[in-house]
Specification:
The structure holds 2 protein chains of 2 kinds. By secondary structure, chain A is mostly beta strands. Chain A has no helices and 11 strands. In chain A, strands 2, 4, 5, 9, 10 and 11 form a 6-stranded mixed β-sheet that branches. Chain A has a 5-stranded antiparallel β-sheet with strand order 1-3-8-7-6, with no helix packed on it. Chain A is globular, with a radius of gyration of 14 Å. Chain B is globular. The chains are: A mainly beta, B mainly beta. At the A-B interface, β4, β5, β9 and β10 of A face β4, β5, β9 and β10 of B.
């Protein structure tokens, strides 16, 4: 039972345009959401997060939007740059739950085309 | 420079042998985690520890064991009971005292068992 779903395995975007990565979740107890970026053979790097009391969080070129009623979040990257090509993981935590740790989606491979 | 060090980067073992993966952090984080990544899959939680001398099973703990004798160290042993041990293993840590803190990851160990 996948609680965090990233339905697009890959996404191709032209350099300079906006990249939008989507993530859906099923567990209504999740209250903290994060996006990670991962290059091959490296560990994931934390990008940006949002708590469930907010609907938007912005950090430079990265903005995360949260729609709690739809159980959906998205990551916007504007403008997209070649170095943004990587796998992006959506993750979530139920901070009131018994188990610690994050639940991850399967990732979306973002390819920025020159 | 603070961070999480995983060693070695690549590890090869014969089937039936136990193998221990090292994870050391100098971030002074209380909580540490082990995840496993398989191709096309998200990260799955193996074990976590929120405090020295205490640890909890994650979603896929069978065939693995851990110890947490020091705050800085959280080694993972992949035993011969693990049916599919070949994978990319990631160690992470985070500061506690609040639920909304991201995990910081090491660069992983790729284990190949033949």
């Amino acid at each position: 039972d996948q609680q965090v779903k990233q339905n697009s395995p890959s996404l191709s975007v032209q350099e300079g345009r906006i990249s939008i990565l989507n993530c859906d979740y099923t567990n209504s107890m999740f209250d903290y959401f994060l996006w990670y970026k991962k290059y091959p053979a490296e560990g994931p790097t934390f990008l940006i997060s949002i708590s469930s009391i907010k609907d938007k969080n912005e950090d430079g070129r990265f903005t995360v939007f949260l729609n709690k009623s739809a159980k959906h979040l998205s990551l916007h990257i504007v403008p997209s740059q070649p170095g943004d090509s990587a796998v992006y993981f959506c993750a979530a935590r139920d901070s009131g739950g018994g188990a610690d740790g994050l639940t991850f989606g399967k990732g979306t491979h973002l390819i920025i085309q020159p | 420079d603070g961070g999480i060090t995983q060693s070695p980067k690549y590890l090869f073992r014969k089937e039936g042998q136990n193998v221990t993966l090292s994870c050391e952090q100098n971030l002074n984080h209380d909580a540490m985690y082990w995840y496993r990544q398989d191709p096309g899959q998200g990260l799955r939680l193996i074990y976590y520890s929120q405090i020295v001398n205490d640890f909890q099973k994650g979603d896929i703990a069978e065939g693995y064991s851990v110890s947490r004798e020091k705050k800085e160290s959280f080694p993972l042993t992949v035993t011969s009971a693990q049916k599919n041990p070949t994978a990319f293993y990631l160690c992470a840590s985070r500061i506690t005292g609040g639920p909304h803190s991201p995990l910081h990851f090491g660069n992983g160990t790729r284990l190949t068992v033949t």
